[in-house]
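Retro notes (design track)

What went well: tokenization of the new backbones is finally stable.
What didn't: we kept losing track of which sequence belonged to which structure.
Fix going forward: every design gets posted as structure first, then sequence, in one message. First example under the new rule, 111 residues:
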């Protein structure tokens, strides 16, 4: 799992690449938690994420709870069909604002 952080105005974009599973979940959770801002907004770009397991879904749920506690708006961008299917099938997708592109996510988070 690779994780890149960059800014788009006041939006912190975290781009994930690779598999989010039991082997990568703990490190990903720690790194994402450290990089989610305490103000502004956060966008998870999942376009490079090729697979997620239940451990990966748990990471996303913990990030969701973190931003809910801090009041930071969060969106998910560029879900691959496989990841979207898993998130839809489990109902996890309903927790998030989901957009097709990073640009659409930035726009949704800065309205």
């Amino acid at each position: 799992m690779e994780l890149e952080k960059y800014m788009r105005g006041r939006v912190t974009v975290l781009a994930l690449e690779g598999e989010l599973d039991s082997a990568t979940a703990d490190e990903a959770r720690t790194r994402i938690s450290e990089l989610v801002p305490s103000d502004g907004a956060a966008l998870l770009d999942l376009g490079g994420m090729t697979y997620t397991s239940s451990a990966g879904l748990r990471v996303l749920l913990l990030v969701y709870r973190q931003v809910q506690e801090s009041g930071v708006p969060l969106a998910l961008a560029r879900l691959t069909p496989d990841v979207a299917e898993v998130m839809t099938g489990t109902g996890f997708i309903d927790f998030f604002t989901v957009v097709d592109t990073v640009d659409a996510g930035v726009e949704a988070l800065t309205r």
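Added context from the reviewer: The domain at 2-109 is CATH 3.30.750.24 (Transcription Regulator spoIIAA).
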